[in-house]
Amino acid sequence: MTTSSTDAPGGAAAGGLRLLAVTACPTGIAHTYMAAENLARAAEALGHRIKVETQGAIGAENVLSDNDVSSADAVIIAADKDVDRSRFVGKPVLVVGVSEGIHRPEELIARALSAPVHGGEEAEGRARDRASAGHDAAHAPGAPGGPSVAGVPAGGGSGGGAGRGGERSVTYKALMNGVSYMIPFVVVGGLLIAASLALGGETTPEGIVIPDGSFWKPVNDIGTVGFELMIPILAGYIAYAIADRPALAPGMVGGWIAAHGELYDSEAGAGFIGAIVAGFLAGYLVLWIKRVPVPRFVQPIMPVIVIPILATTALGLFFVHVLGNPIAWVFEHLTDWLGELTGTSAALLGVILGLMISFDMGGPVNKTAFLFGAGLVAENPEIMGMCAAAIPVPPLGQGLATLIRRRLYDGQERETGLAALFMGFFGITEGAIPFAAARPARVIPANMLGGAAAGAIAGLATVTDAVPHGGPIVAAFGAVGGTPMFLVAVAIGTLVTALTTVALLSLEAGERVAGALGVAGGASMTGAGGAGPGAPEAERTTGAPAEAGRTAGAPVETGRTARRSAEAVRRESVPAPAPAAAPAPVPASVPVEAGAAGLARYVSRDSVAEQLVATDRDGAIRELAALVARSGRVADVAALERAALEREEQGTTGLGAEIAVPHAKTDAVTAPVVGFARSAEGIEWGSLDGTRARLIFMIAVPEAAAGDEHLRILARLARALTDAGFRARLRDAPDPAAIMEVLAEIP
What we know:
Elements: E1 18-24, H1 31-45, E2 49-56, E3 59-61, H2 66-70, E4 74-79, E5 93-96, H3 98-103, H4 105-112, H5 121-132, H6 170-200, E6 202-204, E7 207-209, H7 216-243, H8 248-259, H9 271-290, H10 302-341, H11 346-360, H12 364-375, H13 381-390, H14 393-404, H15 411-425, H16 433-438, H17 440-460, E8 464-465, H18 472-476, E9 480-481, H19 483-511, H20 566-572, E10 608-609, H21 617-629, H22 637-650, E11 654-656, E12 659-660, E13 663-665, E14 673-683, E15 693-701, H23 708-721, H24 724-732, H25 736-743
Parallel strand pairs: 1-2, 1-4, 4-5, 10-14, 12-15, 13-15
Antiparallel strand pairs: 2-3, 6-7, 8-9, 11-12, 14-15
Helix pairs in contact: 1-23, 5-9, 6-7, 6-15, 7-8, 7-9, 8-9, 8-10, 9-10, 10-12, 11-12, 11-13, 11-17, 12-13, 13-17, 14-15, 14-17, 14-19, 17-19, 21-22
């Protein structure tokens, strides 16, 4: 499929620049193509030639060749994920966030030539150092209106910070990179352990164990391997995101050391917090080594031999001899302190144990509390009862949060939440680590509050646990005394964690201006700085796409994206009236036009309406479902309605700029189909820019064809809808035939 960006726009002046660009984001559906389209239009309006490579959900398109790079004057990377820059060595490279490509394409083109020349890994490492130190476009010298530094305008660095619309901070990207690679190990390891315990476990004084001769013993061992790899994977890929391949081995080895306290005389490892520390230390240590000048004959072996060996050795020794002693000290003194608390208030001890269990989930604080309770199982099982109630709370609470407010999480996070629920039932606290590693400032406090509540209730109710294990599974095996109150404690702790998590994430979502959804539309689960990886792209558009050609006098539509809170969006929402009666569908024998190309392959005159009767979102979806049924490609209209409405519950499909694209993957349709209708008054769709939807598309694809086909249709629409002229023609078309002519412009 040809991208919207062009190799050489016909209107480009012969003396213009030759520019290259790459647009990309974590999900690559709407922002990727909007940025590409606006950059292409802006370049044409300014008399330059540009070729834009899009790295979308359907793969890289319009890929830049070596010849393209060699003849380019400058390169623009508008991306919210890592893009390989090694092919641009020797070229000025401007790196910004993808939203910059959407909203300020002319400014990026003007800044491109004065961007720093990319000099390979060493130069990139220095740029990343600057970014991590906080030299972002909004505050560094050289910001618009301020002095320049070595001729480099703000944001021109290869690692621009988290300034307004700029590239995400290296810290944020590195952390999310590590979490994304860690999640499969958490899920695989945790579910295998949980399944083996459920089907082959037996209650013993040592806990729930699996007999050596059992079929489930090796299954449990395989799951344990997955769990042991989880921590080094997190550290390794944090380091990799900071300093590329030479940092991978030091990061993974450092993570392994962090997880194994016996290497530095501690009964507990440093857990996932230690892995995060090891990952960042490894990454920045490698960047520092890269800057050391070496003879030319040594340079080829630096990234393969010298750097990994030096960094791994230095980091390992540092962890063992410098960080290891404080970790061992913490473990020892926490154990002594807990011993002194024995015999005090049961509620107070329960609160303290719950806080510790939920803090670092496998780290020294967690292990101290667990081993303290396990050591007193025989003489004081009430202490283990407090621990057992707190152990499942973090994974159960985080899993429940993904169910309470699904729109706050992307698809991968929701799947991880289901796995966390399963692991929580079996007392596997580590099931919450992916959430805590991604957003520690919000998730860890929520976990601790829930753990404290569970521990306090279990302590007050004198719950006992006869085995050193936790979670509802121990009650199912009959090892718990006071089972009803034990379950009450777990349930209340889980609810406290879930509600606190939702509240903190919703508060964060309401404070963000761009790159996230408000509460009304569902927010992505992120740290400070913007939308999280994997957030549905079409759902994170917060303002009208910027229109290229500002210098030519064309107005720019940016939407009302001034700091609007989620509460304000809710206040502007109108109550949904009763659904309007949808027009009766014509017989399903009307085919989509044969021989049509581009978007016209999916839309027919019968699936287009000048005006909707409905005045609310749900009524509009029902009316559009009946409308697309006229295409002859809908087998079950009611099922299509349900699928589209369920999709809205996950997060708004209102893109802003008076556009909404409700869509569904369902076997209620026999082939991909698109419907379109307008609303003169506009329909409240929950868009963060506050605009009411007036141009509404419905996309429906069968499950079997839901992959690339769905994304390709969305990509086509996203590119076309960045054009204010296209939107105006669509609004002004007098009848369905004229609307079809406008839609036929979409390739």
